[in-house]
Specification:
5 helices; single chain; Arc Repressor Mutant, subunit A; alpha+beta; globular; three-stranded antiparallel sheet
Length: about 110
């Protein structure tokens, strides 16, 4: 299994966490931020990001604001109140998952 497949199931959580931390962001900005934070270990393609953003928006977790930048429209995504609550829930689930994986991968000898 390739490492990016491991991240694929976590993409919604990654996006929500970034928006929770940074506020409004546009798609390309999200991809660059993830790449920078992970020092290039994780590269999110547009083909993966935009369906995730649209799904989160359809669920009411994100809202969109369109601004004109250099005579071009740019979509900025930001969390709704439901999105903020769901982010906390997903982050707690992720922390629990990571703790359980750590126990499984590094069992303590009795």
């Amino acid at each position: 299994m390739q490492k990016n497949q491991l991240y694929k199931g976590s993409l919604s959580t990654i996006v929500l966490k970034l928006l929770n931390d940074k506020g409004k962001m546009y798609g390309y900005q999200i991809t660059r931020e993830v790449e920078q934070i992970t020092t290039g270990e994780l590269v999110i393609t547009e083909g993966a990001l935009y369906p995730t953003l649209h799904k989160l928006e359809a669920k009411g977790l994100l809202s969109v604001e369109i601004k004109t930048v250099n005579n071009r429209p740019r979509k900025y995504y930001f969390l709704t109140e439901n999105g903020k609550e769901e982010t906390l829930n997903l982050l707690n689930e992720m922390k629990s998952f990571i703790q359980n994986m750590d126990v499984l991968l590094n069992p303590k000898l009795a």
